[in-house]
Amino acid sequence: MAISQGRIQKNLGRIRDNIAAACGRVGRDPREISIVAVTKTTDLDGMKRLLDVGLTDLAESRVQQLTERAGEMAAYLQRRQSPLPTPVRWHMVGHLQRNKVRAVLSAADCIHSVDSLRLAEEIDTRAESIGRLIDVFLQLNCSEEKQKFGCAVGAAAHLGEIMCTLKNIRLIGLMTMAPLSDDPKEVRHAFSRLKEMFEEMRNDKIGGDNFRHLSMGMSQDYPIAVEEGATVLRIGSALFE
Questions:
Q1: Is residue 36 helix, strand or coil?
Q2: What are the pLDDT digits (tens) for 128-185?
Q3: In the predicted model, is pLDDT for residue 1 greater than 80?
Q4: What residues form DSSP beta bridges with 138?
């Protein structure tokens, strides 16, 4: 059975209440924080409901699903009678291989998972060929787990500097994924390490005015991410419970 708009609205309200509470604990403004809705657990009707409650930043973690769902959404938007207040933007939030960049750029406006210079250069080259400027995050492996993707924290500043010389990508921030742990201290450590690296790079003027976002926090840990400075939350299952 398709999820109702009312159910998504209720879930979104709870998420925003939790964001506001987390902001209150650390003296932040909830308006600094945006939600990217990860759509992998829903269908086209669920995606329509996201638009109806005002969520137009949508994401997928796999390339094939991203291109398919972006295509479905584009076809729906052509038929939709009422215009959206803000356009739909698609985000690639999962691991990306260089041979899949061309497909991703056919759909995505922002890529959260750039973790190597070779990948950044491939995105830059492909973006130039189609006349686009792509927003990207540099993904760091702050938990230092061997099975996780991401640039080593110690290499981030140097890689970020080089990425900023590429003309067809725009480095807008850093991204990380928390460890798969029930210990909130371990989760918090990964997020705080990303914030520390972000501040170091900001102090070194890497990225300029565009470099202002921290993409961290998912359905199970977003309140901690907010407390540690997240500006972009990647929320999926909590919207569709």
A1: strand
A2: 999 999 999 999 999 888 778 999 999 999 999 999 999 999 999 999 999 988 899 9
A3: no
A4: 114, 174
DSSP 8-state class, residue 16: H
**Dihedral (C-alpha) 144, 147, 150, 156: value to the nearest 10 degrees?**
30
CB atoms closer than 10 angstroms to residue 207: 22
C-beta neighbour count of 95 within 10 angstroms: 16
Q: Which of the listed CATH numbers 3.90.1070.10, 3.40.50.300, 1.10.287.130, 3.20.20.10 matches domain 5-239? A: 3.20.20.10
- Where are the domains positioned within the chain? 5-239
| Placement of tokens 């080259």 in the chain | 125
Collect all residues with Cβ–Cβ distance below 8 Å to 122 and sequence separation of at least 6: 98, 101
User: What residues contact residue 184 under an 8 Å CB cut-off, 6+ apart?
Assistant: 221, 224
Which pair of tokens denotes residue 142?
Answer: 């702050």
Report yes or no: 173 and 213 within 8 Å, Cβ to Cβ: yes
